[in-house]
Amino acid sequence: MTSIVSVRDLKKSYAGGFEALSGVNLEIEKGEILALLGPNGAGKTTLISTICGISIPTSGTVRVGGHDVVTDFRAARNLIGLVPQEINLEPFETVMNTVRFSRGLFGKPRNDALIDQILKDLSLHDKRDSKIMMLSGGMKRRVLIAKALSHEPSILFLDEPTAGVDVELRKDMWDVVAKLKASGVTIILTTHYIEEAEAIADRVGIISKGSILLVEKKEDLMQRMGKKRLRIELSTPISELPQELADRGLEIAADGNALIHDYDTRSDRTGITALLKDLQNAGLKMTDLETQQSSLEDIFVDLVRETS
């Protein structure tokens, strides 16, 4: 795949010595959806702001579509649409004029048909003549997305785009994201809704304390680091493990009605067959078995915990 965004040894420090980004290296492939996950203060917004040319790097380089974001910032910025976290809109302007004005800022010719279609895709068309001040918070956030799409960017950055948006509107937004990807737009998003990243991202990047911990295909990450959990339902509750099972790494469920066993899917042998025989030999009767795969959230929490 061809990289449309290339970040090399990027550092960003502020007055007082705080280092928000510490040597970030990142290649973003053309046409992919990359989900950037990290706790508050990890550096997600700083990284996006620097790629978009809003924040000047302390050192390192960022190239967008082959253009340096510092020395050739106009060409780089023309390729980018940005949806920021903060809602900062002119309250007395209409939705249509707000989005139309953003297109004009990039030197694009007037195209009301395109703007109408963007508003329809974002369920905003019936509000096209409404003033911003009359919109709900979720509607205003969708206006931000419409503004970002108005100049037909090749790359779209979504910084917490669904914060404060209800479930139905969130689904509408991700439908739009899927259509944009199908049209060839590269999408980078930050989100606290990890299930969304798990549902729509091609690759996942995890950032903590200004450093990228990993960037990997979602499926490969979950296969490599995911674990499975076996829940063994018992016919009779227990309060402590029989001595024969003490070294099996089992956990008793809170209600005592089940045993929990975590195992690595990468191992040649899981040991489950031997475990079940040991349970039988210990006089424990099973009524049911259930397995669960680790989620992306489990992996994320574990990785961040390791670096804290």
UniProtKB/TrEMBL annotation:
Keyword Nucleotide-binding in annotation: yes
Entries under InterPro entries matching the protein: AAA+_ATPase, ABC_transporter-like_ATP-bd, ABC_transporter-like_CS, ABC_transporter_ATP-binding, P-loop_NTPase
SUPFAM superfamilies referenced in this protein's UniProt entry, alphabetically: P-loop containing nucleoside triphosphate hydrolases (SSF52540)
PROSITE patterns from the UniProt entry: ABC_TRANSPORTER_1, ABC_TRANSPORTER_2
Highest taxon listed in the record's lineage: Bacteria
Domain ABC transporter, chain residue ranges per copy: 5-234
Name this polypeptide is given: ABC-2 type transport system ATP-binding protein
Single GO MF annotation: ATP hydrolysis activity
Entry-linked Pfam families: ABC_tran
UniProt keywords, alphabetically: ATP-binding, Nucleotide-binding, Transport
SMART domains membership: AAA
